Amino acid sequence: MAEYNDEIVHECDGIQEQDNKLPQWWVMLFKVTIVFAVIYLLWFHVLGFGKLSAEKYEDEVSRAEAAQAARQAAALANMDLTMPSLEAAVLSEGSELYSTYCASCHHSTGRGLIGPNLTDNAWIHGAEFADSMYVIENGVLEKGMQAWKSMLSLRQRHAVASYIYSLRGSNPPEPRRAPQGEVVPGSDSPTFQL
Ligand code: HEC
After folding, report:
1. Looking at residue 75, what is its pLDDT?
2. Residue 105 lies in a domain
3. Is 32 found in the same domain as 93?
4. In this structure, what are the phi and psi dihedrals at residue 18, rounded to the nearest 5 degrees?
5. 94 and 12 in a common domain
6. What pLDDT is recorded for position 2?
7. pTM
8. Average pLDDT for consecutive 10-residue bins of the chain (194 residues)?
9. Which domain holds residue 135?
10. What is the count of structural domains for the chain?
């Protein structure tokens, strides 16, 4: 222990100052903080071994994004293919397939060209989602609608069927192909049978 000396070395306005050594424990603590600061500086800022908050944040965000993508993939993998899906990923895949394989006959808007209008409430082969799936799978060969089962996988047929489902009731600009088949009230809505 440092010696305690109560000699007053300075006094001003009644405030007295003594000149004693600081306690050893206090000095040690002070030195430790200096050593710590040097190591900290080297570790985080010079050598870059430690991650700063911004990097940790980036890490967490990319981990969360990967987890989100995995969840979405799992949700798509477990999707019920007997029902139309309005998932953005499904519709964008369906939209691409539609412009590649279907738009030439059903028009890019679905309003019909060689093939019937897919946006109205009249259906030759049935208004339900399962009916569209069936026609897309097996086609109507004698009318020029080919069977897509060898060209498109079940998942792709589901995506394109979901896409045309989403076009229902979209009222594309004229000239629309006149309604063909049986009118099924309410079937010109993307929420029909959902
Ligand atoms: C070569 C022209 C052609 C192509 C390409 C074509 N279709 Fe068709 N599609 C037709 C014709 C013609 C019909 C009407 C069949 C009938 O009269 O029975 C039809 C009927 C349909 C129907 C049933 C409509 C109803 O009223 O019941 C659906 C659904 C359909 N097509 C979806 C598709 C999809 C999806 C694709 C792309 C994968 C596609 N078609 C590609 C010509 C085509």
Report:
1. 86
2. yes
3. no
4. -105, 160
5. no
6. 52
7. 0.74
8. 75 91 94 97 93 94 95 89 92 97 97 96 96 96 95 96 96 94 93 72
9. 88-183
10. 2
Inside any domain, residue 194: no
How many beta carbons lie within 10 A of that of residue 173, not counting itself? 7
Residue 175: what pLDDT? 94
Q: Is residue 51 part of a domain?
A: no
- Assess whether 122 and 175 both reside in one domain: yes
Q: Is 165 in the pocket of ligand 1 (CB under 6 A)?
A: no
Mutate to test the pocket of ligand 1, among 90, 93, 100, 105 (most ligand atoms within 8 A of CB): 105
Residue 73 covered by a domain: no
With CA atoms as reference, report the closest residue to 176 among 120, 132, 135: 120
Output the pLDDT for position 97: 98
Report the chain's terminal Cα–Cα distance, integer Å: 84
The CA radius of gyration of the chain, in Å to the nearest whole number, is 37
Separation of alpha carbons 136 and 64, rounded Å: 38
Is there a single domain that holds both residue 93 and residue 38?
A: no
Q: Which two tokens stand for residue 8?
A: 């007053």
Same domain, 177 and 92: yes
Whether 140 lines ligand 1, by a CB cut-off of 6 Å, is: yes
Tokens of 193: 């049978």
- How many residues comprise the chain? 194
The pLDDT assigned to 3 comes to: 66
